[in-house]
Fold these 4 entries.
Entry 1:
Amino acid sequence: MRLSTSWMQQTAINSILSNQSAMAQTQAQLSSGKRILNASDDPVAAAQVLGLQQVEDANQQYQRNIDSAAAQLGLEGNALTQVTSILQSARSLALEGNNATESPSDRAAIATQLQQMFSQLVQTANSTDGQGNALFAGNAVLGTPFVQGAGYDVTYAGDDGQRMVAAAPGMQVATGDPGSNVFMNIPAGNGRFVVQAGASNAGSLVVGASSVANTSTYTPGSYTVTFAADGSWQAVNAAGDNVGSGSYNSASGGAITFNGMQIQLDGMPAAGDTLTVQSGATQSMFDSLGNLINAFRNMPAGSKSSNVVNQQIEGIDQSLQRVLDVQAQVGARTNTLTQQKTTEGNLDVQYQGSISNLQNVDMASAIGQLNLQQVALEAAQQTYVKVQGMSLFDYLK
């Protein structure tokens, strides 16, 4: 077979170019640290890397969501702690002022302190995060959720929505609680029913603690208890049916019971004095403090004031229980987010390891390959020099 000089030269040049291209590819891999520079280098691995990167990006977004949600829950927890402190201080003042020996000036001073606590409670309920979004407004985060009107009337201007964040595929975690649930709809009285002394009572009857003494016979509803001069009483329901009767010992105090309910009383009733019992009633934290302020500022010490104060103390107790329940929920969500963050951090390491195995270059192997390619290129270059220098005249000397 006849081999032309031009063919041998072209073959040598092609060999040089091929080795140069291979060396350039290896050098690019070494400088970038990646084995796959273009999808054509390894189409199957490139597709796997792309899929893993998408999953890792989503996982990192979930982690950012968790960090943001944890910060929001931390702010809510701090606000709830402050609310607890305000309510506990107000309760202590109410107990201190609910004493017949307190002078009008003392009661006025207590009312002034309670008024400051009321303002602090409204301010705390309107707390915002770093972006100015209200913590307790539901989804209406750009507005002021609690608006104080005349006197101590506070209305809720937010909504009942609960903001959620995606913490993982199919996992939504609440990042806040609407103010209507935290501050407004608090069960009145003992949480099951509330007892109020009649506004026109002429005796010294004072309502104390009340409770459900027998759950099997407890019947929620509206009731009116009427007393006679000798302490005998009769309870009727909303339809006027007699549901209980008995005799109250006004000398030593005591309790009356009917329909599974027990009501502790003190003082002496006058003929015709009444109590109303209402199940399922609610009031806000603001109402409890506002009613206390009005009682200490506008009512003289006595049974009427004591009845109002005792009822508001019950309201504060229920408010404290509501805050405790919400704090427990916030703590549970925070724990869930912490556990999920750990899980997603571990997944992130796995994803990065898988991507590295598919995409990153083996440095030792690549350096060895580069050395071999360099030797091959030098050999090709030397071969070309020899081939180029060959001619027929070399054999005619």
Entry 2:
Amino acid sequence: MHRYSLIGLLGGFFAVAVASQGGRVVTEAEFLSVLDETHPAVRESAGAVGLAEARLLAARTFDNPVLEAVRADPAGPIGQTDVLVSWQIPNAARRPEIEAREGEIGAARRRLTHDLLGYRLAMREAYAGWAVAAARRQRLSTQAERVESLARREASRAERGEASGLEARRLRLAAATLRSRVALAAGATEGAKAEAAAWHPGLPVDARPVLPELPDVPSLDGADTRVRAAQADLGAAELAELATRPIAASPEVTLGWQEQDIGLGSVDGPIFGVAWSVPLFDRRQAARQTAGAALEAARARLELAERESTAARTAAGINFARLAAALAEARRELGATERMLDGAEAAFRQGEAGLTDLLETHRSVTEAELAVLDLHEAALAAHRELERLAASGEGGPGS
């Protein structure tokens, strides 16, 4: 597979900047590592599998026998004692019912896999938002420090009569504007970190993210997790429909012992009985109709999932390739930004360029670098969409 390598000036700059700020660096892989079977989101989704397993256990369990003891002692000379045991024989629908419940477990596990992928992508989104916000804040902070340094230098020159006081005030105003943007970016970073911490409760207070590179393009061969879940649901619905076909219930068998007191003596002997529900009116019509409707709905869901997956894969592949290529090109264009700023400042000090030109150069560089961050964020989102559509439904949490 082709790997989009996006290691460039900005990537190296932000990695160094994060390390220089202190605090514990938390990579995306470390952030995602907490998504395992102990994570609350995983435990909540796993409950559906537990319920399906409980229904299978119920289907496999035989009915309890019923023990009954009856003493009849009328006013006449005869008394009677009956001790009875009744048991419902497993009917013909038991085996199909068990198979249907086994199919439900398979479908529940497929849905759990689909949910796990959704949680992973939500965590990737939260981390990317946090990392991009931190990178934006760092870029603005660096630019504000540079402009403030220029403002202090020009203020000193103005006090010595070597520069215009107006130019020094304009630089201070530009620095104040950047400080305002830094404050807004800091608030956005803290908000994004709070969203990330909701997924990672043990996130260190001083944790700092690293802007992720674009991962490899995932394989789009085979069915994605949503389609696989729909396929499993259809299989379970087919088994459930088969389980409604037997209409005759099994008989209830009664065995017991009867003793009759007659005058000075008694007689006793065994009792045998059979009770059988005759399917004359209730022939499970409602159950079969319900199962049939559920089966048709499952078929329709699978068809829709397959259509949407096919269309979405085409669009997502094109979108990611376009964004990745645009990001690589934009980073190449920004490879000389530091030299550009140094040159603009040197030209200003030597009187070869005015303050307006210098401020415009700073503004252009900052906006261009922030635009690249926006493009990087969009490319990461496009890759998450590709991962959602990829045929990677066999992994476990955090895989």
Entry 3:
Amino acid sequence: MRNTWILVADGGRARLFACEPPGRTLSEVACFANPDGRLPGRELVTERPPRVDESVGGARHAIEPHTTLREKSTERFARTLSAALERGRLDRLYERLVLVAPARFLGALHGCIGKPLLGRVVGEVRRNFTALPTPEILERLPRRLLH
């Protein structure tokens, strides 16, 4: 009997399900929230960007960050999810993993997931199902991923 975990996530919320063989029921294992992932970009900025003095003259310039606060928040959330999935792998709570997330967040997850965990991934769905009720998530997933 092979146990499958299904992570349904976006930048602001994630739900982790266990799929009971033979793929007929989903039970929620954990729920994660990233409140910063739901805020509009302008609300993530709390103060003016830092300033730097010009080496010649009295001019001052703002320093623009290389990554936005939203990107940093998303990356932190992806690392949190990756750590939870890694704990489950080490505790042998599942054998197979399915990732369901929008393409941008899947990219963030791939940046955090190590090779041993990536080896458990049997499929990906590039959609946002986080707001759907559990039975509808099960209905929309390809059957081949659940067996």
Entry 4:
Amino acid sequence: MPVVYALIIGPGLSLMLDGNGKLLNVLLSRLYNGMDSFPLMALPFFIFAGQVMNVGGVTSRIVDFSQSMIGHRRGGLAQVNIFSSMLFAGLSGSAVADASALGKIFIPAMGKGGYSRSFAAAVTAASSVIGPIIPPSGIMIMYAFVMNVSVAGLFAAGIVPGLLIGMALMATTSVLAKKHNFPIANERASWRVRVSALRKAFPALLAPVILLGGILSGVFTPTEAAAVAAFYAIIVAVYFTRLLKLRDLSSIFVASALQSGVILLLVGASVAFGWIITVSDLAGTVSSGMFGLTDNPYVLLLLLNIFLLVVGMFLDAGPAILVLGPVLAPGFLAMGIHPLHFAIVMCVNVTVGLATPPLGLVLFVSAEVAGERVEKIALKMLPFLGVEILVIFLITYFPVLSMTLPRLLGYAD
């Protein structure tokens, strides 16, 4: 059963069994009110911007720039794959978009360059999880709406963890490249070539600077920033890359609307589900059970990470955040954990879960592009998952890594 129906049918059955069938109207009202929100308009705008950037050839320009900068290193194509994901994250905010767009470029290229297709798919899947961590991020917008935290503050908290994961993946690739003698993609590019590649990619690279700069400086809200991103994407794809024709916009609008509809319906259902959690005091029951095991905050954070990593193996990032956020957050906030710190720990955890078997979404996307079995790719991913989990524990136990930037910008007390 699709998650959205489970989120509605579960609470509905609960009301019926408790003899509160008259409250079904309230449940449906919560479903609609959960979607009828101005901040959530950011989601379809960011989705549309990502679609336009993909169709408009922006992705290939980012890849060319990345290859000119680091393609000469051993294991260069794998490094370029990761570096491109870090740059692409500032445009799409989606792990699936990253895995699909970059996977179609890098997996065949790495296969021809001497890498196994399973390793190429593993690098693509592992690096694609950076997409929702470096802002803008769809799952952060959902979390901020459901849990009433600052979107801009959460965006600021995600920058350092996203960069840490990217650098950790590149370091791991460097070690593996020396061990397995991975090929060098190309000779060191001259500065003329690099400047030329930068000039072509500059409009795309400027997008996250405009968006984050505008949001964090208070020039526009995250919702307004999403509209700016959509408009900017059209300008870049039509007038700079010149690969997007105005007649193509109709199909992009339809695809964006369908994807947005699925996400917004899921958000509305999660709000209704959250209402049942509140009136039934399920959050209090779960918290008392967890906190009954120990009162040591470090042990509780360890249990939280283990629990979220396991959940991420079976549940997509969006539903995991929307269902578990209202259940888990109250107890940890009462313990003194800052709302933004808890939010970024949870968002990074469930995002890494997108690349973990057996039900990792980006794992399946990469496997489909590569034409390889999921279990074979998962085996190659183990070193990358190891360093991603290490970063999760670093940001969990050293809040300064994720909280310094929000505090400097005034989003955290």
